[in-house]
């Protein structure tokens, strides 16, 4: 049985590398440490400001949007990492990224040339790519059309 000091040391060294959500830390150390002691250490870390789900949510939204992911993908990744949807949506609303322009920028970088509107296969391939990145159908359609209009 490890002491709280050993658990605290492990958690702080983990947090020294990058931000983690509380759920990620609990999952990582679930089998290694006692759940009650781990919860106590995490409560202390949150009280001291070492760990913050709010800060992690901010970092996640900023980094994923910067990497060219859409709202749906960011929400999905946040939920997978144990963040509440309301926490994520609050920060996304605060940041207020323009998802249409973000999709258009990604499409411009990825597909430098426009496509013939009659080429359904290529159009659908680009649409699938943008949808898989978490953009809505309307955002993906806008992005593909903006690349075509920039080329013409």
Name the structural class: mainly alpha
Question: Tell me about the biggest sheet?
Answer: none
- Kindly report the average pLDDT value: 86
Got a strand count?
0
Rounded to the nearest angstrom, the radius of gyration is 20 Å
- Uncertain segments are none
Order of helices and strands: HHHHHHHHH
Strand content: under 5%
- Helical element count? 9
Query: Helix fraction?
Result: over 70%
Terminal CA distance reads 69 Å
The coarse silhouette is elongated
Structure description:
The protein has 152 residues and is an all-alpha fold. Helices cover 73% and strands 0% of the residues. It is built from 9 helices and no strands. It has helices at residues 4-17, 22-29, 35-48, 53-66, 71-80, 85-95, 99-110, 120-132, 137-151. α1 crosses α3 (35-48). It starts with a helix and ends with a helix. The mean pLDDT is 86.
Topology, element by element:
Elements: H1 4-17, H2 22-29, H3 35-48, H4 53-66, H5 71-80, H6 85-95, H7 99-110, H8 120-132, H9 137-151
Helix pairs in contact: 1-3, 4-6, 5-6, 7-9, 8-9
């Amino acid at each position: 049985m490890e002491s709280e000091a050993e658990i605290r040391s492990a958690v702080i060294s983990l947090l020294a590398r990058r931000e983690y959500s509380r759920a990620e830390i609990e999952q990582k150390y679930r089998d290694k440490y006692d759940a009650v002691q781990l919860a106590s250490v995490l409560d202390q870390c949150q009280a001291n400001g070492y760990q913050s789900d709010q800060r992690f949510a901010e970092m996640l939204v900023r980094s994923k949007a910067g990497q060219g992911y859409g709202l749906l993908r960011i929400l999905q990744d946040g939920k997978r990492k144990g963040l509440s949807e309301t926490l994520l949506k609050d920060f996304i609303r605060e940041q207020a990224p323009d998802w249409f322009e973000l999709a258009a920028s990604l499409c411009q970088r990825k597909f430098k040339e426009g496509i013939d509107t009659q080429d359904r296969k290529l159009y659908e391939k680009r649409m699938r790519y943008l949808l898989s990145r978490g953009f809505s159908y309307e955002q993906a359609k806008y992005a593909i059309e903006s690349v075509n209009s920039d080329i013409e």
